[in-house]
Amino acid sequence: MSTLTIAIIVVFVLGYMLIAMESLTKINKAAIALLMFVFCWTLYMFDPAPFVQLMHPGFQGTGDQVVSFVNSLITEHLGDTATTLFFLMGAMTIVEIVDQNGGFNWVKDVMQSKTKRSLLWKIAFMTFFLSAILDNLTTSIVMVMILRKLVQDKKDRLIYASLVIISANSGGAFSPIGDVTTIMLWNAGMVTAAGVISEIFIPSLISMLIPAFLLQMSLKGKIQYDDLSNDLTGDREILEFTGIQRKLIFGIGVGGLCFVPLFHYLTDLPPFAGILLVLGVLWTVTELFYRGLHRKRGDDIQFSKRVSSLLSRIDMSTILFFLGILMAVACLEEVGVLKELGSGLNTAFNKNHYAVTGIIGVLSSIVDNVPLVAGSMGMYPVEAMGDMAVDGIFWQLLAYCAGVGGSMLIVGSAAGVVVMGLEKITFGWYMKRITWIAFVGYIAGILSYWIIRTFILVSPL
């Protein structure tokens, strides 16, 4: 391992430590993530040729050609990162539009519970199954907006929000469209929809049930009526549109979010294109509604809930944090750290696929699970028979571990990052109170999968 590679790893580790100590340093995590990104790539550019030869042996250029090639690599990684960021921004804006127009108020009646623990179970199951239909990122945004209407106490809401992260990641793992990594494995033909649903569902459910049971111990007492009606002022303020118009906005927004996976399947366009399509349609419809309001009230009337105004509410620090983290991880990928890590695991555990995928899942809570899964797909070819065959133990465990493992740290998944930004959960608080709970559920899910594949479904369906 070269000196530059070690230096890049040191910068990444130090950056992660500072992010973890945000509550102590009082430095915004987005600033640290951006510095990680720039410093890692700056070190890379000191001598990029060896890294290019290692990771891209087909490239034969020298001198300025190497610089141009590396710049194209950075642009490519930035493009991959931007698809996630635009998906996040689009989904957050759509949910904000629906929320500001009363779209989620009905949930207060549907989800109303007498006790805090009963509400926790309703939140857990709704998040789990909704994540399988939508995706864990969109589901997390929707559920946090619902939680804000149901729970006024900040300390309680942090517990509920943490369960949303765990449930969203668990629900996304057993669905072929519920998580980015599962989509990657499904599209590559390494798992089938029927196989991953039938054999990963129970482990995913267990990885949600056990943390929910443990977290309910932190919640005692009943929910007061005031807790369920804290949004009434907002309800009165949002009546800019008629009831039919608000229902239409809700239908387009939520229906559009459900349509995104189908749009991706039909067009092969990235999911962010579907999100932007839904945002564009919803924006156009609301502008037509406001056009009618201007005719009635005059052109000089200003409406604070127009989409152009709501865009300013997007938490840009979360977006920039996500940018910095993903681009820093991309640098680790380009220096070969992730690839060496994967092959080293395979050697160290003597091809014990439960151990290898289990470690990959733990690592996915530290670095982004997408490059980890992509690296695994490149290192381990699909075989005709055995654990590495289509729907084999390795690939199904990889889908489970990469998805559920991200719950162990709040920055380990897209769901965690967005909830972190929306509810201002600190890295340290989550690590102290939630990490061990998510880990217990994670291990229990792996154990249940071992029992299923050893004693019940010896061969895949």
TrEMBL record:
Topological relation to the membrane, as annotated: Multi-pass membrane protein
Superkingdom, taxonomy of origin: Bacteria
TM spans (from-to): 6-23, 30-46, 119-146, 158-178, 190-215, 248-266, 272-290, 310-330, 397-422, 434-452
Record's keyword terms, sorted: Antiport, Ion transport, Membrane, Sodium, Sodium transport, Transmembrane, Transmembrane helix, Transport
Single Gene Ontology BP annotation: sodium ion transport
InterPro entries: Cit_transptr-like_dom (IPR004680), NhaD-like (IPR045016)
Location of the Citrate transporter-like domain: 16-389
The keyword Ion transport belongs to this UniProt entry's keyword annotation: yes
A Gene Ontology term for the protein's cellular component: membrane
Location of this chain's protein in the cell: Membrane
Keyword Nucleotide-binding: no
Cited Pfam families: CitMHS
Stretches assigned to coiled coil: none
GO molecular function: antiporter activity
Record-linked PANTHER family: SODIUM/PROTON ANTIPORTER 1-RELATED, SODIUM_PROTON ANTIPORTER 1-RELATED
Family classification: Belongs to the NhaD Na(+)/H(+) (TC 2.A.62) antiporter family.
Protein name as annotated: Sodium:proton antiporter
Protein species of origin: Prevotella fusca JCM 17724
Gene of this entry: nhaD
